[in-house]
């Protein structure tokens, strides 16, 4: 009997020792892979504002990410994890439970740190495995940042028509809706606030004519950097945006420090500009030579498209005109494009675009050349290569 008791005691001690070693390895894995940040991209793992000190702010969050893939390299059993957020008074205010398995080793959780919900102080994120406390990660919430002054000329707006960018010099620019058109907001930071935080958390809010945020993006800037610039773009296609007064706001730790207003107006009617398209073999001194729609494929041969425009002043002398010539192959796919961007000085203008048609590049068949204004098709001409 005594011998049996000794064996049981030995088994219990062995199990306890094994559990301690097991949790010791788990504790190390959690400590090394638990990340706290203001923002975490779950797909790339990229973080903004990673650390253990966070400033209370409107629309602010702390996100926690834990990846135990390394732990599961030597363990195949499922793992029940609890993440428990504890406030400055020692009270739990949010818990998350998740079962981790070998092919699903990540757990994410987040809590709001808005002034209405949180107070400054020392907080903890407790990590439990099978309801046993393994790691207690401490972090601090700092008082909300306050600034009553808007910084002038901090945000500059540009209009991007595809890859070509045209600056708008107006302080309150008027921008017309257009397919595949983007507005780019560029922020150049001049005077950074004095703070003991290593990272400054900025946010750009795009606000529509109804006062609602339709897009926002956060940025983390090191406070020691002398000059800092960041930008953000939104599309202003007619099917995605409505006309009206818009604005883009710059926030620092959730506090508004600058804003820029702009107006979106209805899409311009490209059909007001008239165009006559001529295809020819040569174009010299404003003369079209070899006008045709049938071209022979040859080493030095080319197809030239001449677009004679009229009524270019239909939108005034200040409006930037965005033209694009697209060449479409016999397979229906565009293989070459050329852009023309200018402000009209006269009512008439000629645009020229050409393609080479050597045997190595082109095959016989029907082709097209298209002309777009403001990404609206205003001319299409067919031709044949043989």
Protein described:
With 386 residues, the protein is mainly β. It folds into 3 domains: 23-142, Macroglobulin (MG2) domain (Immunoglobulin-like, Sandwich), CATH 2.60.40; 155-265, Sandwich (Immunoglobulin-like), CATH 2.60.40; 270-385, Immunoglobulin-like (Sandwich). It is built from 1 helix and 28 strands. It has one helix at 2-33; strands at 34-37, 39-40, 47-48, 53-55, 61-67, 79-86, 92-100, 106-112, 121-129, 132-142, 155-161, 164-167, 174-176, 181-189, 199-207, 213-222, 228-235, 244-252, 255-265, 274-284, 287-291, 294-295, 302-310, 320-328, 334-343, 349-356, 365-373, 376-385. It has a 5-stranded mixed sheet. β27 (365-373) and β28 form a beta hairpin. The chain is elongated, with a radius of gyration of 32 Å.
Question: What structural keywords apply?
Answer:
386 residues, mainly beta, Immunoglobulin-like, 3 domains, 5-stranded mixed sheet, 8% helix, elongated
Task: Chart the SSEs and their pairings.
Blueprint: H1 2-33, E1 34-37, E2 39-40, E3 47-48, E4 53-55, E5 61-67, E6 79-86, E7 92-100, E8 106-112, E9 121-129, E10 132-142, E11 155-161, E12 164-167, E13 174-176, E14 181-189, E15 199-207, E16 213-222, E17 228-235, E18 244-252, E19 255-265, E20 274-284, E21 287-291, E22 294-295, E23 302-310, E24 320-328, E25 334-343, E26 349-356, E27 365-373, E28 376-385
Parallel strand pairs: 4-10, 13-19, 22-28
Antiparallel strand pairs: 1-5, 2-3, 5-8, 6-7, 6-9, 9-10, 11-12, 11-14, 14-17, 15-16, 15-18, 18-19, 20-21, 20-23, 23-26, 24-25, 24-27, 27-28
